[in-house]
Write a structure and sequence with these properties.
mainly beta; two-stranded antiparallel sheet
């Protein structure tokens, strides 16, 4: 089983990020959601807030 998954952050202007990550925490219209490798497929509306991306212990933060 893989311990990472491909994440792509895309805006109308350009691709912000494209890399393998271990964890993503983001805010949806239904509340905060954490995404781990091998998660079930889902569709959710994104809400305004901070997105945390973790890869091999290092964290990056983005504003959605």
């Amino acid at each position: 089983m893989a311990n990472s998954f491909k994440l792509e952050l895309v805006t109308p202007l350009h691709k912000v990020l494209s890399e393998e990550v271990n964890f993503v925490m983001l805010r949806t219209t239904e509340g905060d959601m954490g995404i781990l490798p091998n998660h079930s497929p889902f569709v959710a509306g994104l809400a305004t807030g901070e997105m945390k991306v973790r890869n091999n212990g290092q964290e990056k933060f983005y504003y959605v």
